[in-house]
Q: What sequence folds into this?
């Protein structure tokens, strides 16, 4: 069964760090484009980062270098290391698999259930 | 960044009605647009990609059209289980950007 399961969320103080994990089953994470998308409480969807099958990574500009996306082939898991967290990073964080498109990355066809990150003192 | 302007932000319709949502991109994205359905407390679900291709398993009452900068999403014959928020998203250019969402309710 194809499944994505995010873990690692929780309550963290401003300035702190957190690492989110996305355990993948049913396909190989390193052979696919994988992304993180977040959703602040009561708000819309916001793309965060992507890692290409070849290993290249891209990030939303507003992150300003605070987050790092990575993957572990042996654990078939995607990660998001989040540093210097701010209140505005409070959101549900989803991992998602992207289809291939002519531009490279296409639509997100498989999503996890999300993990909540709350940044507050 | 490409801005995605989605309208309306909410709508109320009766069961069986035809519902239409529009999404306008701030620049040409060819057909690199998809539509998601999100129910409260759930992850988004892909309904349509490449502007008009129905994802496997999605009911045929959902459809999409458009190219360039103007796109339309339609639900033919609204059903009670279609109550959700719908989002468009462009993947023609990084950063990927979403529309603001349309909340669909039953009248």
A:
């Amino acid at each position: 069964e194809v499944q994505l399961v995010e873990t690692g969320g929780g309550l963290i103080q401003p300035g702190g760090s957190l690492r989110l994990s996305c355990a993948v089953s049913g396909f190989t994470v390193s052979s696919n484009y994988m992304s993180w998308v977040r959703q602040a409480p009561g708000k819309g969807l916001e793309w965060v980062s992507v890692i290409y099958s070849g290993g290249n990574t891209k990030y939303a500009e507003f992150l300003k270098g605070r987050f790092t996306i990575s993957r572990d082939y042996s654990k078939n898991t995607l990660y998001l290391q989040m540093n210097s967290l701010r209140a505005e990073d409070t959101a549900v964080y989803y991992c998602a698999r992207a289809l291939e498109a002519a531009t490279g990355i296409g639509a997100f066809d498989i999503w996890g259930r999300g993990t909540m990150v709350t940044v507050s003192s | 960044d490409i801005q995605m302007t989605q309208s309306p932000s909410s709508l109320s319709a009766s069961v069986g009605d035809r519902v239409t949502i529009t999404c306008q991109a701030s620049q040409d994205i060819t057909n690199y647009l998809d539509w998601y359905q999100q129910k409260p407390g759930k992850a988004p679900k892909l309904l349509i990609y490449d502007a008009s291709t129905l994802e496997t398993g999605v009911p045929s009452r959902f459809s999409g059209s458009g190219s360039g900068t103007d796109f339309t999403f339609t639900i033919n014959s609204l059903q009670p289980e279609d109550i959700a928020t719908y989002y468009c998203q462009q993947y023609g250019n990084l950063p990927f950007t979403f529309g603001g969402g349309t909340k669909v309710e039953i009248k």
